[in-house]
From TrEMBL, chains A, B:
This is Cytochrome P460 family protein. InterPro entries: Cytochrome_P460, Cytochrome_P460_sp. Residues 40-173 form the Cytochrome P460 domain. Residues 1-23 form the signal peptide. The keyword Metal-binding does not apply. Keywords: Signal.
């Protein structure tokens, strides 16, 4: 299992190797275009904010983690988020588990498959004044996706939330106790 | 948001209050029947092992967290788990998000709703020698469910995994990188 997970991660990294990933690595680019957001050290140990699923083209299951500043703000219901808050969204393929379903009364178990990508949102009202105070990055196999248009779409999408729920500070996720 | 989440938690606690919850509290029972498993302090800050979803009657979305011993074993692919490993599974109602879908191109967003319950597995090969080395408990609104039959069903179900994947040490979840 662990081995399968690591295999998928390595496979993703190798796939990336053929295109954008190696290019980013060659350029020494460890940060996202536009915002210069990096994959935060130790983020995989951060506390859970919530879980979610996207159907449709994404067809993923996801977890949203936060650093201490972000988690504190979520738990206190504090909006806007203070500077220094970092939210990390991990997405994996949404897959039925034949093994688990062999135990359950009906086919009902869906689990996280291969990792898809990790998206990072960093709150810094000064540095990111032009994008609602948030800087964005998307990472695959540990490397930033260098596609400027993709990274531009982060703010474009999050900013749509401002019209629907102005108090959300452009964050889709609510804390799950 | 936070307020809604807390409201749901309080509502769950109040609902429980009418039946088993208060009874358990009155008896001072903070631990599960049979195994005496308690809700571990600080578990909500533990690292994420993976996420999953159960369709059917459960209709939930879930996160699996682990203490440091469990997470280390998961990451190293170590089985059986060492004594002291604790795995905590949190489940929430699986709900479409009309708010998020208003932003996305098609209805596709599902999020965690009200909390359902928290299940705890504790590895202790001596104490729990009769149940494959694992002790179990289920908690609602922070209180242990006192139903012996329900808690007996934990091992009955996990033990079915032994025939399908003997090396899994009765654990359904794999680590998601």
């Amino acid at each position: 299992m662990m081995r399968a997970g690591m295999g998928a991660l390595i496979a993703s990294a190798l796939l990336l190797g053929g295109s954008a990933g190696i290019a980013a690595q060659r350029q020494g680019a460890q940060a996202s275009p536009i915002y210069g957001v990096r994959l935060p050290k130790g983020y995989r140990d951060w506390a859970l904010i919530s879980v979610a699923r996207e159907k449709g083209r994404n067809n993923d299951i996801r977890a949203i983690l936060g650093n201490a500043i972000a988690v504190k703000a979520f738990r206190e219901g504090r909006r806007p988020f203070p500077d220094g808050a970092i939210i990390v969204r991990l997405a994996w393929r949404y897959e039925p588990s034949a093994r688990n379903d062999a135990v359950f009364p009906t086919p009902q178990s869906f689990v996280a498959g291969a990792p898809i990508n990790v998206q990072v949102s960093v709150k810094d009202t000064k540095r990111y004044a032009d994008s609602g105070g948030w800087g964005y990055g998307q990472f695959e196999g540990g490397l930033p996706n260098p596609d400027r248009a993709l990274v531009e779409s982060c703010f474009a999408c999050h900013n749509k939330l401002a019209a629907i729920e102005p108090g959300a500070d452009l964050v889709f996720t609510d804390y799950s106790p």
